[in-house]
Amino acid sequence: MKRYAYYLSCINESMTKEVDRSIDLWQNDLGIEMVKLHESTCCGGSNLDYVSPKHFALVNGRNIALAEKLGLDLVVSCNTCLMTIRTAKKKLDESPDLKKEVNDLLKKEGLEYKGTSNVRHLLWVLAEDVGFEAIRQKVRVPLNKYRIAPFYGCHILRPSTVLGKDDPLDPSSLDKLIEALGGTSLPYEHKNRCCGFHTLLVAEEESLNVAAEALEEAIQIKADFIVTPCPLCHTVLDGYQAKALKQAHIQSSIPVFHLSEMVGLALGYTDKQLGIKRHIVS
Amino acid sequence: MTGVTELHKEEKRDITLRVFRFNPQVDSKPYFDDYTIQTEKGITVLRSLNYIKEHVDASVSFRAFCQAGICGSCGMRINGISKLACTTQVWDELEKAREPGVIKIEPLRNMPLIKDLIVDMDPLVDKMKHYSNWVESRMPEHDMGKKEFLVSEEEFLKYDKATDCILCASCVSECTILRAHKEYVSPAVLLKSYRMNVDSRDAIHDVRLGELVKDHGVWDCTHCYRCQETCVKHIPIMDAIHGIREDALEVRGARDTSGAKHAEAFMEDIEKKGKLVEATLPIRTNGIAWTLQNLLPMAMKMIMKRRTPPPPPLVKPAKGMKKFRELFREMTEHVKAEQKSHKK
Amino acid sequence: MKPFDIVIVGGGGAGLYAAMEAMKTNPSLNIAVLSKVYPNRSHTSAAQGGANAALANKAKDDTVELHIFDTIKGSDYLADQDAVEILCSEAPKIIRELDNIGTPWSRLDDNTIAQRPFGGAGRPRCCYCADKTGHTILQTLYEQCLKKGVFFFNEYFALNLSVNGSRMKGLVAMNIKTGKVEAFPARTVILATGGYAKMYWNRSSNAAGNTGDGQAIAYRAGIPLKDMEFVQFHPTGLRKSGLLVTEGARGEGGYLINKDGERFMSRYAPEKMELGPRDLVSRSLETEILQGRGFDSPAGKYIHLDLTHLGADLIKSRLPQIREMSMYFEGVDPIEEPIPVRPTAHYSMGGIDTDNFGRTVMDGVYSAGESACVSVHGANRLGGNSLLDILVFGRIAGRAAAEEARKFEPSQITEQEVRDTEALLRSYMQPSGHFERYGALREELGQTLANNVGIYREASKIHKGIAEIHDLRERFRHVRVFDTSDVYNTNLLQVLELKNMLDLAETVAAGALAREESRGSHTRTDFPVRDDEKWHKHTLATLDGDSVRLGEKPVIMGRYELQERTY
């Protein structure tokens, strides 16, 4: 059983509880264990970085230090949290002064940021540690009747200087996971594009246009569902789907699954167990 | 000897360029033409297009000028990604081709199409004008040319990368928000605006910033990083966008926008609870009236599906918040002290 | 149409400075800038190295006087000394003015504008912004013109001056986006269209559009061209493409190495070594190659430009563009290995004959920048003086035109002239009698020029070149524009550019044949020494019927007597 420190993303604590719920269900099946970091705090989204760079470094240095205390890698299942925490890690690793300032404060909580724990997405753990072949062998209900549109989202890919796993404009790991689970991964132009989440509250019309385009293509290529490794993308593509498609005058709909739910389905868990009923679009 | 022959064979290949065609005078809609030519290793996409124009079909239309990656004329989408044809190797693109041996060539997006691979740059120029993408000199007219400004290397480095921009419009073509709304300022113009705003020789920082924080301005960027990732000059465009935002939060007056409020709400929540209070974020960003009108129907649906805790928000604070809050506030003191010493 | 006070053709450094200065001189004037590309695309952007000015920021003992001397000596004493004095004394002002309006400059420790050594200069006086100086100057000028509200006609191709006898009425140009020919009646026209070195085609570092449009327009209108035989070959073009590796690479300390591993410049310029003037360094490279000491490759013989000893940090911070280009176009990372180079046609010293105010012999017609020949570069231009030339004389021409515009009475260009021009353009599209492909003609023109009117010249070769150019002009009569559309017809554009190059190629070859001496960039193997008695003078090429008539013009001397030029 390989152990990881698991970061609790705000959105998975409120809007998309089904993500952590489904990981809880199947983690042991794949020989991994997620140790939840209940003391971790919000990463600051993609905003704290410029609102206050220092707080940004402190908050995320602390989040990583919590994992380092356990001697484990930090695993994240939200793209933006991933990008944000990795950005902070990069800054801390590149600036001894900043690292010292943060550590002087962390000392008071008995923590230290050393830079020893890696920060990784759940998808990367599945691809690199568990391995597609091992996953293939664990599948109980192959997804072979499904045509699936993989929607990666931005912050698992870009900026490549911070993420650097998949090709930032032509990724493939999620496609490979779909194939390992027995599904058909469709060529999907929007796979590397944006969902519009981060401007939803600031420029709603624009955000919904962005989402509508991604949804429209998935409908056009006759996908059975979209799958995404990011709960923020899910929130837009599922939660705001009706509004987006209405704005774009499209009369159709398409279900959107979390990566963790798709894995759960293939491993034999039910809709109900996985919390898929919580989705807006069924 | 066969080895050598094979090597030579590998150095030359038949490739197909699938080129987007549209002549507004005769075509009702765009179509693609396939051109199959022999190319050798080391040949750029632009040289292949030139060959086609000179030897196969003279009507294929595209812009090209310096052919050395500095004038920015030959921006186009190659296998779906915006880049310069003159600095793109055919061999590299073959590896990315979806259909073996076929390279797809299309015009840049997000700008009006003129013909084939040529798009209209005027909207971009208009935006450069709208956002005052120039230095309004602090030097009085009568002193012009008489003395230099003293500029530190440190300041020069702030805008050094930004002045690499050749306005090829690759970032414009790749921009998520511009595609969703053509009024959006666009990455290249944000970059130039940032470059002007950090230049101590400029006198209209506040005017420019005032425009940038309005609708369709800096807060509308969705952080998708496509601009930065496709920039042919590898300019960290998002740093410039974040730079403008940071600036906007510091300057009084510019912070009273929904984007700035949205950004600051994160700070507030982390300090209080360690967690983001998603349910009240819309109200704090846009006010109660906007939220009721725009989000209430969806919120009801979400509550029915038990997706979000019903208001008032019951977000469980992170564990050990008391100590964390102390650290957080201490950092606030650090920042304040630093700002004070800066002002001096 | 209401006549313009000033129509500026070309949106590079000279054209934009002229526009800016003209608006400043008289804001009430009606000014237009026509450019066949968006101004920010102009070839000024490719000037990497920098602009000379005796600011004395780096070398405290530098003076305008030293700059003047270096320029005159560099020109092989063919520059007009009064013009050089204007160039060099205006230089500090123009660099400071650019700084004042926002041009980014690299900086010295004392926060003043940085300067570096450049070929042929006795002091480090070349002001630069990394290796993107021209690019950043062009951006700044374009930004300032947008700020001032200059009226741009972007993507317009200038066709002809409309002339009635000796009186200029304005300009006829094609709107590239619509294909329509339009008249621009004007009191004054400033031709600022850049150089003509692209006629050497693949053996040239120039942009595809540096086809001498302005010079050809002036020539066809009967305005003389000056010193056309002087074409500068830059020593370090990339082997495969001819694209340029800036002199900045040698300024920062790069070595030129032959296949025997020698820094061979010690043979030709023992003191200045790699920083000798361009003509000398180019000839040295060519000699090394001709004498069998070059490297061999399928893409031709070449020499190594070695930067590896400069270290990754310096290369990345000071020469990033060079590194990028070497990787894109040669597959070579200069941090790791030497760059393969050979001489490439780079700059045209010759151009439209003007006085020190940019005026030509025709009332109301001005020229500035590389399209003009004032002359400040004489037989050879110093590195860092070309940006300076376009800025200084662009500004002067802008001011002169603004002050003089009202002296010239406006008149109209007739509808008939516009229709006739349009018909002429359409005629290239007629299938009968038109079958030649422009691509082949262009390629052959470049080859014949490089082989017969290149770095080393001699009478028999030049004769051959002239015959071949003549033949190409005959074949051009049958050239066919296959694209018959109006909107953005790049096929037609390239044919029109080829016509301009063919017209000018004759003047280059004629000048080269006549000038029986070796001076600056012009090297006759059959007349290997400078002949001041016979040839210390400018040549003038004027269109006479269908062929070139050569004339001459004295060189304006001043403080500096003729001397032998050694480095």
From TrEMBL, chain A:
**What's its top-level EC category?**
oxidoreductase
InterPro entries (alphabetical): Cys_rich_dom (IPR004017), HdrB/HdrD_reductase (IPR051278)
**What Enzyme Commission number(s) appear in the record?**
1.8.98.1
> Where do the Cysteine-rich domain residues begin and end?
4-86, 149-238
Supply the alphabetized keyword list.
Oxidoreductase
A GO molecular-function annotation = CoB--CoM heterodisulfide reductase activity
- Name this protein carries in UniProt: CoB--CoM heterodisulfide reductase
Q: Which organism is this protein's natural source?
A: Chlorobium limicola (strain DSM 245 / NBRC 103803 / 6330)
UniProtKB/TrEMBL annotation, chain B:
What cofactors does this protein use? [2Fe-2S] cluster; [4Fe-4S] cluster; [3Fe-4S] cluster
Gene Ontology MF terms in the entry: 2 iron, 2 sulfur cluster binding; 4 iron, 4 sulfur cluster binding; electron transfer activity; metal ion binding; oxidoreductase activity
Which pathway features in its UniProt record? Carbohydrate metabolism; tricarboxylic acid cycle; fumarate from succinate (bacterial route): step 1/1
Matches recorded under InterPro entries = 2Fe-2S_ferredoxin-like_sf, 2Fe-2S_ferredoxin-type, 2Fe2S_fd_BS, 4Fe4S_Fe-S-bd, Beta-grasp_dom_sf, Helical_ferredxn, SDH/FRD_Iron-Sulfur, Succ_DH/fum_Rdtase_Fe-S
Source domain of life: Bacteria
Output the Pfam families linked to this UniProt entry. Answer: Fer2_3 (PF13085), Fer4_8 (PF13183)
User: What keywords sit in the KW lines?
Assistant: 2Fe-2S, 4Fe-4S, Iron, Iron-sulfur, Metal-binding, Oxidoreductase
Q: PANTHER family annotated for this entry? A: SUCCINATE DEHYDROGENASE [UBIQUINONE] IRON-SULFUR SUBUNIT, MITOCHONDRIAL, SUCCINATE DEHYDROGENASE IRON-SULFUR PROTEIN
The protein in question is named: Succinate dehydrogenase
